[in-house]
Design goal:
Strand order of the largest sheet: 3-2-1-4-5-6-11
CATH class of one domain: Alpha Beta
Largest sheet: 7 strands, parallel
CATH topology of one domain: Rossmann fold
Distance between the termini: 53 Å
Strand content: 15-25%
CATH architecture of one domain: 3-Layer(aba) Sandwich
CATH superfamily of one domain: NAD(P)-binding Rossmann-like Domain
Structural class: alpha/beta
Radius of gyration: 20 Å
Length: 342
């Protein structure tokens, strides 16, 4: 028989921002599969085709009675309150943001609105509700173009090379102050180059697939001297769920990332950085097409290598990425063929 505490949580819900996004929609599906009630909010902005976001909601989340979707902007306090009206929220998974390193150079105010004001609104909501856990998306981009490998959450990350990265670092600093002042548990997850089915069209793998099937040259930046810690979506989702289930304790002990408040910072990567050429080779083999390569210089805002130190996440969360690039890329290609009809 369930105890009184468990009974009291029967009608509690988890708020997921960016619910129609790549990671958000996968996380919503996984939470629903665990029997959780989920409230999702997403502005469905036009940074990339809205049809893809709607298809994610339909294909991944479906018509579950335990899911309620609100089309709105979480950076607007009134819309955020409307999204949770009538719901009892005890946890927040904040995955919504204006994404894209290069786009942040062209449209900085969009990042200020969604990533800074939006994050503040979610922190205020977490404070007001007294949530059991506030889990939020950060990014490997906070590390900048450092030479210290692998990237450790214990290292300083004070030199972002894009505004997008700066907003993500700012999110961590804002959360640290709230965790210190209001003592609610919070966990930052620094994602490393997430890929897989239902991914984003602005990410390298999707762009390469699109160009490959169209018979167009693939732009290879920095002369191909780029490495990324590509991380499959299923591994990322497993990491998010593991983190959500383990809120950091308010015990004064130092947490990953250095905080003595109930605020932890973890890398979620694959711990196996791959050269850009390796990605192209696996993609080409899976597609059965010989690529045309167009070598180009380094792009503003990019970094040459990312590599996650996932030791703390392994130790504290049981995080264990299990999908190598040679398995994940063919899965993406299979999905991409079905979705696009190529």
């Amino acid at each position: 028989m369930r105890d009184a505490r468990a009974k009291g949580r029967e009608n509690m819900a988890i708020l997921v921002t960016g619910a129609a996004g790549f990671i958000g929609a996968h996380v919503c599906r996984a939470l629903l599969a665990l029997g959780e009630r989920v409230v999702g909010i997403d502005s469905l902005n036009a940074y990339y085709p809205v049809a893809l976001k709607q298809a994610r909601l339909a294909g991944l989340v479906g018509n579950s009675p335990d899911f309620r979707f609100f089309h709105g902007d979480f950076a607007e306090a009134g819309q955020l309150q409307a999204a949770i009206a009538g719901e009892s929220i005890d946890r927040i998974v904040h995955l919504g943001a204006q994404a894209g390193v290069r786009h942040s150079i062209e449209a900085p105010r969009e990042y200020g609105h969604s990533n800074l004001i939006g994050h503040l609104e979610l922190l205020e909501l977490a404070r007001e509700l007294g949530v059991r856990h506030f889990v939020y998306a950060s990014s490997s981009s906070v590390y900048g173009d450092t030479s210290a490998l692998p990237f450790s959450a214990e290292s300083r990350a004070d030199h972002p090379v894009s505004l997008y990265a700066a907003t993500k670092k700012a999110n961590e600093l804002m959360t640290e102050s709230y965790a210190h002042l209001f003592r609610f548990p919070a966990t930052s997850l620094r994602f490393f180059t997430v890929y897989g089915p239902w991914g984003r069209p602005d990410m390298a793998l999707w762009r390469f697939a699109e160009q490959l099937f169209a018979g167009q040259p693939l732009p290879i930046f920095n002369g191909g001297h780029m490495r990324r810690d590509f991380t499959y979506i299923d591994d990322i989702v497993a990491g998010v769920l593991a983190a959500l289930a383990r809120p950091p304790a308010d015990d004064g002990a130092v947490k990953p990332g250095g905080s003595r408040s109930p605020h932890a910072v973890y890398n979620l990567g694959n711990d196996q950085p791959a050269a850009l050429g390796d990605l192209v080779g696996i993609l080409s083999e899976a597609a059965g097409i010989t690529p045309i390569l167009d070598y180009q210089p380094m792009q503003p805002g990019d970094v040459t290598v990312t590599w996650a130190d996932i030791g703390p996440a392994r130790r504290d969360l049981g995080y264990a990425p299990a999908t190598p690039l040679a398995v994940g890329v063919p899965r993406f290609v299979s999905w991409y063929r079905g979705y696009t009809g190529v």
